[in-house]
Each structure stands twice: as structure tokens, then as C-alpha cells.
Amino acid sequence: MSKCTKRKLRGRLWTTTKGIPMHLIVDGKPIDIEADPEMPLLWALRDLAGKTGPKFGCGIAACGACTVHMDGTPVRSCILPLREVQGEITTIEGISTDGKLHPVQQAWLEEQVAQCGYCQAGQIMSAVALLDEIDNPSDEDIDNAMGGNLCRCGTYPRIRAAIKKAAALKTAGI
Amino acid sequence: MASVGKIARRTFLIGAAAIAGGVAIGYYYYRKPYPNPLEGELAEGEATFNPYVKVASDNTITVIAPRAEMGQGVSTSLAALVAEELDVGLDRIKVEHGPAAYAYYNSEMLAEGGPFAFYNDGLFAETARGAMGALGKILGFQGTGGSSSIRDGFDKMRQAGAATRHVLVEAAAKKLGVPASELETADATITHKASGKSLTYGEVAVAAAQIEPPAMLKLREKAEWKLLGKPQMRTDMLAKVTGAPIFGVDVTLPDMLHGTVKMSPRFWSKPVKSDLSKAEKMPGVIKIVPLDTTYGHGFGVIAENTWAAFKAADAIEVEWADAEYPADSAAISRALTDALATQGSALRDDGNVDTAFADAPREKIVEADYAVPYLAHACMEPMNATARLKDGVLDIWSPNQMPTITRQLCAGAAGIEQDKVNVHTTFLGGGFGRRGEMDFSIYAALLAKEAGGKPVKVIWTREEDTRHDVYRPAAAGKFQARLGDDGLPVAIDMKIASPSIIASVLRRTFPSLSPVGPDKTIAEGSFDQPYVVPNYRVAAIPAQISVPVGFWRSVGNSYNGFFHEAFMDEIATAGKTDPVELRRKLMTTHPTALKVVEKVAEMSKWGETLPAGKAKGFAFTLSFGSWVGEVVQVADTPAGIRIEKVWIAADVGTAIDPGIIEAQLVSGAIYGLSAAMGQEITFADGMVEQSNFHDFDAMRIFQCPTFEVAILENAKKMGGVGEVATPPAIPALANAVFALTGKRIRSLPLSKEVSFA
Questions:
Q1: Tell me: the pLDDT tens digits for B597-625?
Q2: What percent of chain A has pLDDT over 90?
Q3: DSSP-assigned beta bridge partners for residue B646
């Protein structure tokens, strides 16, 4: 629990209703919460920090709806206990800058990707991480990076098109 | 009768009273079956003209799209229908679900509920449709389902736009002192060209709301459409790419508590013995509440956060009573087979099937038994609702497809009158029929009763969601055909057994009602297909298995499409006829169907020789008024069978938004392919065996084929789009697998016999 400000876990302190105080940095802002260190990051974000962008889908890292970044790496926040959180967290709510959509969001908008939209926060966070790593991902790169993100509406063809468009937008500096 | 908001309403009280009961136009105005629910909730300076349109003095235009937005794009298309007649761009319209209200009845959803094929326009079928539609109006049945929203809203929404525009122009004419005929409208502004004067809609809204529109207004011809018939930017897209809090699970209220449920894993069973002590003592737990409802029995947990609620639910120790239904999949399968041995109701009975088979030589007979498993909906957003019961008023925030019935049953659960219940419909993270149920709302209402006036957000775990669905019913079918010397069928006899969805729905929603007549959903997709065969019988047999079943995207068509079209493929093979050629010959009296078949055959280059290790399959299903043909191409790869490409041709009659329709056709096909490839819900000891996406998965991006879609508009009646691509996708894949491997797989999922890459 690197960001934990109170390390003295005497007795059963963490099983009280309030849990133990902890410090997180989410979308560039410090957030102080009190929680059970076993609580998955997802529920701390959603119930305690007011960040409802990451979604609950499965609770076992099988659908990717809860995907956020920890120091830029995509993680499934539904199975990541708070005690293992090390680094800055970025959610879907923190990727646009100065009121301007992230190129991935812009591409999603232009390709009209979302249907129900529930999985899209996770899809977009996986795609952002993919494009941070590979400027021009191949279809295989997309398959590998996005295979953990389930979509029941079947928006995959448009997701693929949007990732390619986002790569072009990024290259063009848009 | 139009209305204006607070201050304006006081100012115009006398005027409003004076014109109450006046004549108005259109669907809504003409009969005015229900009051305008927007009248009670206007903001200051806001005016409403009908249940669908509000205009504020700052020119903000709000359209109520009273159908659940679950991804199908209905909010965009319903708003576009209004916008087209109102002369406003979609970008400046705010779209809302609106309250639960009888004014938002859906007549189209029930209209096709009778046992008639869509193409049957005989007097009896048409009369029944009218009567069923009227029933929707009388019941004030506000629902989203049956791919009916646009068909239902096509006239209503355009009339709402036209009537609103008319009175706005009248009001502007009065204010400017010019004849209304000299005014033009564009972009929410009324302009008098000659004088150069203009007024915004907002500037005349309050005055306009006092004016009664005429009894008849002409709607624009298709050729004049500016928005309709063209792809629009979805009005919900920005919210969905920015993670905006629009879903049920995102509801956040002051002092909100959190909760979850733990219902009996055996449907209808009650706890025999339970120990709540461990759960009650857990940190963050506020209260454990026993739940006894028509949907099932179990416990609800109220806690400080969702995680604490989940852990406490896990810690509740319960012994549940035995199941009242066959306890495992083998026993369920036997019950279906037993049902097939009975007569059933023939929903189609052309010629004389018994005579046609009586003297049939053995080599001319094709026989097959088919079966499909139960399926879960597996919406991405697990079931949830938020409720607050305070000062005798229940507010419920619910991602639901049935606001008026939700209101009714939640009022019952809370023990208050319906007019004390406000249903707030959020966006739905997937629906597919699952959210037409009331369980998640009722449970939240019951927990709210125990929360001391605080709101409680009740979210189910994925495991609870998977194991407490209302499943797509398991079904079994017995099929027989007699071939003529030309290889074409002269007789077809189909029997389909499945638990009745209607009976199951009534048991959990209105247990005092009994179902009447045969449940056509059992055989829809088999009895109502546009084939001409001289002797053709399709019988539906309700099987008595009380596992809860419900509406799953395309309902009975989801399995009958497979049964009917895979069996047609068998007939083609046995008669040495090409599958597409077979349709050409049997669909001659249905030109709409023929054109669809021709189109998809042409797109997919059907008949062209493929390289070794590749094959195509074809299928056609008419459902929800749309005529859909699909071709699936598969390839044999070292990792298994890969679905390479899918071609879809769909005749929807009139295409309101081709972009959204294309998305829905692809979506529907993927939903069907997911099920065909690997999904099944099985039972052991009365309990569902699957629990989460690791054992009830769906197609992933790396399995997704490419798509080519054609939208046709030859049909004379408009069809739906949300469900129609699901039924033919499943047999098209099964038929492709047969063409590739020679294996005729008659039981789903296909993964029981072949593996997919």
C-alpha cells in the first residue's frame, strides 16, 4: 500500500466500517479515502471517489469494462486490491485535455462506435494504451490488445476502424 | 392541449382553462387517450405542446424519446422523426427518456403479438392487429421491445414535430403581424423573408403553447426529407465516449447507500434454513433484508459501499429448498422430448400433411431432431436499480424497458399508490429483452423500504445476474419433409416444443392472470416464413418446465430461425438443390423475400468456387417485419474454424437511419453468432452451472468477421431492425460448418462438436 498514509495496521483496524485512510492520485488529482485495503480499486473509484467512468462488468477481469491505467499501463480495476495500487490512476474521465477529446475518443465519435456504450470506457482505455505503445497497430496488434474487452453489442468492426483512425489522428497531431 | 411552465402557467391560467378541451391534430391530439405527462414538470419559461416536445425560452428544445435507449440508437432516430418536421438539427436537440406515462403507450409492440405471419394481410389478421394495437393503447403499455419503436413512433413523432412547428409559426405570425404562410422555419428560427424579421422558437414558445393545432396536418413526403433516410450522428455518442454517468449503476444521490441481492439459486425456492449472523457483523453492513417476491426469494443487503454489500451477500449462509422443475439438463431435455410426443397447436397447416406423408417412400423422407439450450442475456451492465422511499413517495432510477409496469409493480412492493411512484429511466448498458423485467427494480424498492428514507443503489454481481436471468428458453424440434421427384419439398411437418415465455412472464409479473391461446413465440420464425410448400404444418407445444424464461433478442425466432433454416439446408442437400436455388423456387410468391435472397447471393458471390478449406452457408428469416438473408463464410484454420465474413441483406421497408440500421444488423448477427458458437446455460441440482464470462462468454474482437451489409426498401410495410439479424446468423453459420466439414450439427452450441478459432 504505497500511497497509504497510515501504516499501523493494529488489531483489526482495516475491518472497521471506515477502513484505513489512503491516498490515491486519480486523473491527476489527489484523493483521500478510507477503505478496506482488500477493496478492489474499481469500487473505491466508483463508490468512494465519485469516478463512475470505469464500469463494473464481471468482477473477475474477464470483460475489461473496468479498465483504467496505472502509470500508463492498462489494469482491470475490478480485481486490483487497493493495497496493490502503486502509481497514478487514469480513468476515462481523465484522458481529454483542456476540454479537447483524446484522439481515441475523437475517432470513436467519428466512427460512431458505441451502441449501449457500457463497455466503451474500458475499450477506449485499452485502445489508448495500445496507441501509446504502438503508433500504427496492425490488425493482430489490435486483436492482442483488445481481446480482453468484451462488447455484447458487437461494436468490434467499428472499434477496429476507430483505432486505425485514432492512429492517423495522433500521427497528424490532432 | 399545450402547456407552459410555472410563471407562464400562472399568467395564462384563464386562457389555458378557456381553451381546455379544444381540438388538436394527429395521433396524440386526435383521441388524446392520456394526459401529457410533461405538463406537471415544466421548468420556468418552458412550454410543452404534446408528450414529446418541450421548448424553453432560451430556445432549448427537448424531445422525449419514450423508448429505452439500450444501444439500438432509438433515442437518435425518434428525435430525428420529430426534428425532421420541426426544422431543427439533431445537434441542438436534448433527448430524454421522459417519465413513465400511459401517453407513451406502444401499440406496435403488441400488434404483432397474434398468431399471424407478417405478410398475412387478410381481414382477420389485420383486424386482430388493430385490436392488439388498441390494447396497447388502452393498457397504456409503455414498452421497448419487439423491434417496434420506430414503427410505433414513425407517425406519432413526426406529427408531434409538425404540430409543434405549426403552432410556433402561428404564434410568430401573430407577434410579427404577418400571415403565417409568409414565414419560413429553419434551425429553430422563424423568418419573415420580406421584412427580414425573425424570432426563435424559444421566443414564441409560451404563446404558441396556447394555440391549438388544426385537426389535420400534412407530413412531409419522403423525397423532402432532410434528416430521415440519412445517417445521423448519434445524440448519445459524446456521453458514451467520455464516460459520462448515464447508466443505472452510475446513479449518485446524496446520502446514498449501496446494496446487492442474494436470491435462491433454485428458482422459486425459499430458504429452508439461514444464518445471517456472520454477514450482519461484517464491516460496512447496515442491514440484511429477506426478500419474498413473485420473482423469487432470497436476501438483500444494505451496506455503505458495493464491495461491502458483495462480501456480506457471500457470507450469508442459506440452505435453499429443492427445485420444483427437472433438476438437471438431461431431465430438462427429456421433458422437451416428451412434450414433442404430444399434439400441440398448429400455427400453420397448409394442405394435408398427414395424407402427404402417408404413402411417402422411405428414400424421399428427410427427418431430423433439433435442440437448443437455455441462454442468458449477459448484458454488459449487470442488473441494478436505485430506489428511495421518502415521505410516501418512491423514486426509482432504473435502466428498464417497461416503465409503466415497473411503476405498477414497484408501487405494489412499496405498498403505495402508483401516482406516488416516479420512474426515472436511465440509459441501459444492454437490454436485449432482459430489462423488460421488473425484478431488479422491485428488489431496490424493497430495500429502499428498509433504508430510512435514504436512497439505495442495488447492483447485482455478475454471478447473480447470470444465475437469475429469465432465459431464452431451451427448445427441441422434430422435423420431417417429403421430397418430390424434382428434389423440392412437397410436404413439411414441424413440431417445436419449448416452455411458454408468456406463461412464465405472467407468473412473475401478474400471477393472477392466466395465459390465453397458444404462445406463438414457441414457433415464431418457423410457422411464419415466406415459403410456399403444398403441405406445410408447424405446431407449437408448450413444455411444462418452470425455469424462468423471457424475451431474448429475437425471442422465438432465435431458435426457430436455426431449426427452420438448418432443416431447409438439409432438404436442399437431400434433394440435391443449391440452398439459394431452393429459396428461389419456394419463395416465388414473395417478391420481397426473393429480392433479399438475390441480393445477398450476389453480394457474397454465392456459387463461386472457393479455395479448399473455405465454405459458405446461407439462411433467411423474416422476423419483426424485416426480411433478412445472411451468408456466412468460414475457413478451416489450425486453431479451429474461423468465421471470416458475413454478408447481410435486409429489407426494412423504410430505412430511417442507414448508419444505425447497419450497426444493428451487424450487432444482431454477432449476438446470434456468439450464441451459436459457444453459449449455453445448463443445470445441475436445480441450479444454473454457469456464473460469469469465463464460462458464458461471447464473441471477442479477434473472432469477429468482417461484414458487408445491404439495406433494401422494397417491402410495403416498415420492419424493425434491433433483432432481425440475429435469427438467420445462427443457421447460416451452422450451414457453413456443414459445407466445410460435412458435419450436420443439430444441437447448439456448435462448440460441442467443432472448435472455433
A1: 999 999 999 999 999 999 999 999 999 99
A2: 84
A3: B632, B707
- Say which residues have a Cβ less than 8 Å from residue B611's Cβ, sequence separation at least 6: none
Chains A, B: CB pairs < 8 Å: 185
> Same fold for the domain at B3-106+142-228 and the one at B342-375+471-752?
yes
Nearest CB to A109 within list B237, B671, B701 = B237
Contact B278, B331 (CB under 8 A): no
Is residue A138 a part of any domain in this protein? Answer: yes
Query: Using one digit for the tens of pLDDT, what is the confidence trace for B680-729?
Result: 999 999 999 999 999 999 999 999 999 999 999 999 999 999 999 999 99
The yes/no answer on whether domain B248-323+383-459 falls in CATH 3.30.365.10 is yes
Other C-beta atoms within 10 Å of B718: how many? 18
Q: What domain count does chain A have?
A: 2
* Domain range for A35: 13-94
Residue A67 burial by CB count (10 A; 0-12/13-18/19+): exposed, middle or buried? Answer: buried
Query: pLDDT tens digits for B610-665?
Result: 999 999 999 999 999 999 999 999 999 999 999 999 999 999 999 999 999 999 99
The pTM for the full model equals: 0.94
Q: Cα separation of B396 and B411, whole Å?
A: 10
Say what the pLDDT of residue B19 is. Answer: 26
Is the CB of B46 inside 8 Å of chain A's CB atoms?
no
Task: Tell me whether residues B249 and A112 touch, CB distance under 8 A.
Answer: no
> Interface pTM (ipTM) of the complex?
0.94
Q: Which CATH number fits domain B342-375+471-752: 1.10.10.200, 1.10.10.10, 3.30.365.10, 3.40.109.30?
A: 3.30.365.10
Measured distance CA(B208)–CA(B754) in Å, rounded: 65
Residues in A closer than 8 angstroms to B380, CB to CB, are 55, 57, 63, 65, 116, 118-119, 150-153
The alpha-carbon gap from A100 to the nearest alpha carbon of chain B, in Å, equals: 11
A-proximal residues of B, 267-286, CB under 8 Å: 283-284
Cβ of residue B33 closer than 8 Å to a chain A Cβ: no
The minimum CA-CA distance between A153 and chain B, rounded to whole Å, is: 5
Question: CB A60 to CB B462 under 8 A?
Answer: yes
Distances B240 to A63, A128, B634 between C-alpha atoms, Å: 17, 16, 33
- Amino acid in position B274: S
A47:B306 CB<8 A = yes
Asked: is B3-106+142-228 a CATH 3.30.565.10 domain? The reply is no
| Nearest residue of B to residue A150, measured between CA atoms | B700
pLDDT for the residue numbered A18: 60
